[in-house]
Amino acid sequence: MAHGSLFAILLRSPWWISLGIAAAIVAAARTSLPSPYFVFGAMGALPFVVICGIAAWRQLTAPSPTRVAATIEKVAAMSWRDFSSAVESAFAADGYAVTRLAGPAADFAVRKDGRTTLVSCKRWKAASVGTEALRDLSAAQQQEDASAGLVISLGALSEAAQRFAKERGIVVMQGAALAQLLRNLPAAAKPAAGGPTRR
């Protein structure tokens, strides 16, 4: 679904918001519709109940702040070869067909359910991401007729880049979202208490 659609926004919001909307629809149907038609009116709440369930599951299984920090630290220390392999494996594990791209604008094309997303992640360790990389991705998205664009980065986006991403519907994956994608990335081993620390 589109990143800015109502259901997409609700999926990113606390689960109880969707539940509240569903309850409001049921209450409105109860007070405004004759009894024989109440069930039909109340069925309008069903999509919001489903969204509530999905959002609750996502939030329940979201990585902890400690896990997010550990993942980001490990990702920051990776070479491009290791990081790109981890991203490719993560998308494949989530059911996407992944194709590596040779162009500078996007590194992968990931396909699922008839939708193609171009993924740019080669600048993942850049201190900041400006509009140039996003413009290149947007142009490649139009050229390839892709459904969406995705940028993976540890660095902050400039204000101009944030506005551009919002205008063009480009999703920026950072922090918890990146840790969730790379949830199967092995955690760094902790040294034994009192034992030597390996570098």
Automatic annotation (TrEMBL):
Keywords: Membrane, Transmembrane, Transmembrane helix. InterPro entries: Restrct_endonuc-II-like (IPR011335), Restrct_endonuc_IV_Mrr (IPR007560), tRNA_endonuc-like_dom_sf (IPR011856), Type_IV_Methyl-Rstrct_Enzyme (IPR052906). The chain crosses the membrane at residues 38-57. Residues 76-182 form the Restriction endonuclease type IV Mrr domain. The keyword Nucleotide-binding does not apply. Pfam families: Mrr_cat. This is Restriction endonuclease type IV Mrr domain-containing protein. It comes from Rhodoferax koreensis.
